[in-house]
User: Which sequence fits this backbone?
């Protein structure tokens, strides 16, 4: 079993008012009642610990916060997050699962036509995905360490929320599965290449609109040329 990602959900409305939860007293009471939880660390320190550990941060209840206060909340959160961590807003408690976790993206042999999250969603009536964008890219075989280094650099430089697919690695007869959420990049060899299958890297990149596709593509291509 592998860790897909650590997602931290923040009550933006409470944070804009100087609190870490809508009802801090209730949260503290429940912590003390649960013997499996840390009872000594102050809530403020736990808040920072969760931000540092996060690969993706969701600012929930952003519809209840004025634009000026929301800007301040984001600045406060970004000051603690690790570089490359994704940050998205949630309004009315809704976050599209494809934007959050990239579910189903870059499945084997199904990269064609994945030009936007609108085109990917066939069952989400009433939900808008205009805030998110995605595109696919194919690259030649590359060195594994170089690929991972450039993936990490691209995520940090372009606020990529999610990157997923598979890669062809020089000298390897097996396909390398690639999965990234924020700064966390996970790779493993999932299966051998089959006869006649193109040995190339195929990735789907997901982020908030607008994604700078040209710049991201140019950033990723050195992985293939190295």
Assistant:
């Amino acid at each position: 079993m592998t860790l897909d990602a650590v997602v931290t959900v923040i009550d933006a409305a409470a944070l804009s008012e100087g609190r870490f939860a809508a009802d801090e007293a209730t949260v503290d009471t429940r912590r003390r009642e649960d013997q499996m939880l840390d009872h000594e660390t102050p809530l403020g320190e736990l808040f920072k610990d969760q931000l540092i550990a996060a690969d993706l941060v969701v600012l929930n209840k952003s519809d209840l916060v004025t634009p000026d206060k929301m800007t301040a909340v984001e600045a406060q959160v970004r000051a603690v997050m690790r570089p490359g961590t994704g940050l998205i807003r949630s309004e009315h408690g809704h976050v599209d699962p494809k934007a959050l976790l990239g579910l189903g993206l870059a499945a084997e042999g199904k990269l064609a036509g994945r030009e936007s999250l609108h085109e990917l969603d066939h069952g989400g009536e009433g939900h808008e995905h205009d805030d998110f964008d995605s595109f696919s890219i194919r690259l030649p075989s590359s060195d594994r360490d170089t690929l991972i280094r450039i993936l990490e650099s691209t995520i940090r430089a372009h606020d990529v929320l999610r990157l997923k697919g598979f890669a062809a690695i020089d000298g390897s007869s097996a396909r390398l599965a690639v999965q990234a959420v924020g700064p966390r990049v996970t790779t493993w060899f999932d299966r051998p290449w089959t006869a006649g299958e193109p040995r190339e890297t195929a990735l789907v990149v997901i982020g908030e609109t607008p994604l700078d596709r040209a710049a991201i593509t140019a950033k990723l291509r050195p992985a293939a040329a190295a």
In short: The CA atoms of residues 31 and 86 lie 28 Å apart. Residues 144-158 form the longest helix (15 residues). The chain has two domains: 7-89, 101-225.
